[in-house]
Amino acid sequence: MNRKYLIGIAVVLLLAVPALLDDPFVTHLSIRAATYAIVVMGLTLFVGCTGQISLGHAAYFGLAAYLSGMLAKAGVPYIVAALGATAATGLVGALVGLVVLRTSGHYLALASIAVAIIIQTLIKNAGITGGPSGLTAVPPANFFGVELDGGLGYYYYVLAVVGLGLLILHRVVASRTGDALQAIANNELAAQSLGIPVFRYKVLSFTISVMFAAFAGTLLVHYDGFVDPERLGTHVSILFLIMAFVGGIGSLPGALLGAFSLTIMEEYTQEFGEYNVLIYGLTLALVILFMPKGLISLVHRLSAREGK
Questions:
Q1: Is the pLDDT assigned to residue 95 strictly greater than 90?
Q2: Exposed (0-12), middle (13-18) or buried (19+): which is 113, by Cβ within 10 Å?
Q3: What is the Cα–Cα distance from 222 to 66, expressed in whole angstroms?
Q4: What share of the chain is helix, strand, coil (3-state, %, to 5)?
Q5: At what angle do helices 252-268 and 234-247 cross, to 10 degrees?
Q6: What distance in Å separates the CA atoms of residue 139 and residue 147, rounded to the nearest whole number?
Q7: DSSP state of 140
Q8: Is the C or the N end of the chain the one with fewer CB within 10 Å?
Q9: 149 three-state secondary structure
Q10: Which range among 19-23, 66-70, 181-185 shows the weakest confidence by mean pLDDT?
Q11: Model pLDDT, residue 303
């Protein structure tokens, strides 16, 4: 059972399970998990491959959702609204990166939280965004008159975006840019001594990861039909980061594994109320202690064992 065979099984499961079960709840959960996976894939590039930290990605996720929703409500076609919101949020991310990425370690973590709080506060107090109540009545995705208002059609659309995102990030990681990012993750000073423009690559990695989070935000707002300031909260950013670590930080397939497993867990732990945070913490602690490379390490072990 080699890796290609396992990947094939995963693709078949992602394509077939929601259709075979034909359950609205399963489809709903799959759409949310696939959307979160796009955010986690971007985080994998910045945190896993570049060795940096961000506790504010939910702010860009929510910001793009608001921008896309407001543009769509103003009559802008869906794809133009979504891509425009992603580009605008990417520009914000680049500008933020030029400032905060001059720091590192816990200073960078604190700076990312501070920026996220500023963005959340501005949106929460702006009349055009709906204030604390959020933005409502956002029209669904519409492609040339064909409306995707949820269901299996929207799931396969999001899954296609996931596939495209995986292809893009795989090309980035496998390129000279990916080698430079890995060198930065291993040792910034050594990378700088080799002539690698460390700061430039860090800003590039951060901007790409922000744009992944941004487009995911547009996907969710046109599915839910609303967005509120809570979507920009630090707790959501931490959840994305936990997904990345549980799946396997630095692994693109691990991003999918972490997003799907934590989304399912989140749904079934809601009955515990505020105590579900303890469950996330316990899950992360167990993974760090017994599977430091994440759930994807189990797949690698299975692949290696079957290959003998």
A1: yes
A2: middle
A3: 10
A4: 80, 5, 20
A5: 120
A6: 9
A7: P
A8: C
A9: coil
A10: 19-23
A11: 66
AA letter at 259: A
Q: What are phi and psi of 101, to 5 degrees?
A: -80, 5
Sort 128 into a burial class: Cβ within 10 Å, 0-12 / 13-18 / 19+. Answer: exposed
C-alpha to C-alpha distance for 214 and 62, rounded to whole angstroms:
7
d(CA 85, CA 178): 26
Q: What is the token pair recorded at 112?
A: 């990312």
- Residue showing tokens 């933020």: 96
CB burial string 250-286: b at 16+ within 10 A, e below? bbbbbbbbbbbbbbebbeebeeeeeeeeeebeebbee
CB of 226 closer than 8 Å to CB of 68: no
Instruction: Mark residue 294 as left, alpha or beta (left: phi above 0; alpha: psi -120 to 50; beta: remaining).
Output: left
Whether 8 shows a pLDDT value over 80: the answer reads no
Maximal C-alpha separation, the chain: 63
Give the Cα separation of 180 and 196 in Å (integer). Answer: 7
Burial class (CB in 10 A: 0-12, 13-18, 19+), 186: exposed
Which of 240, 219, 210 shows the shortest CA–CA distance to 65? 219
Phi, psi of 194 (to 5 degrees): -85, 0
CA angle (165 as vertex; 160, 168 as ends), nearest 5: 130
pLDDT digits (tens, 9 = 90+) for 268-288: 777 776 677 777 778 878 888
CA–CA gap between residue 124 and residue 119 (Å, rounded): 9
pLDDT of residue 294: 84
**For 113-195, where are the E strands, in sequence order?**
141-143, 146-148
